[in-house]
């Protein structure tokens, strides 16, 4: 019995190491696109919910995901790519879009899910985020991919920062 548990523990540790290695070698763009897909799925799921408690739980999950995502973009991704691309106005627009999203996130986090405008704010946040994703993936990412930027090295920094931010938020509670 103890040998089986030890094998299971070892197997789990090995799997964790594989997942960690895979995440460390991810391209910055792949990481961001994965985040985009995840949050898009959260918004789709939110639209199907009716229970107020479930809506609040998912809305807060959306807010956390977006907060971490915008922070790694603003701290690491945007400064690195600003030097590598010609169309820096795309970065400026993205930062303005982030400010708008942050405002809605702050409002949603302070609201009660039974408040009259709660669903509307989550829906508008979703619309704004989807617009932001479309612009990044259709305009900004192709610019970056044609640059000389080392996207794997950038991705590694972003993965590390994202993990630290997520750890901070889970230990703060």
Task: Give descriptors for this structure.
173 residues; mainly alpha; disordered N terminus; globular
SSE topology sketch:
Layout: H1 2-24, H2 28-48, H3 52-82, H4 89-110, H5 118-145, H6 151-171
Helix pairs in contact: 2-3, 2-5, 2-6, 3-4, 3-6, 4-5
Task: Please outline what is shown here.
This protein is mainly α. It contains 6 helices and no strands.
The oligomeric state of the chains shown is single chain
β-strand amount: under 5%
What is the arithmetic mean of pLDDT? Answer: 87
How many structural domains?
1
- Number of E strands: 0
Span between N and C termini? 36 Å
Overall description:
84% of the residues lie in helices and 0% in strands. By secondary structure, it is mainly alpha-helical. It has one domain (31-171). Helix 2 (28-48) runs antiparallel to helix 3 (52-82), helix 2 (28-48) runs antiparallel to helix 5 and helix 4 runs antiparallel to helix 5 (118-145). The longest helix has 31 residues, at 52-82.
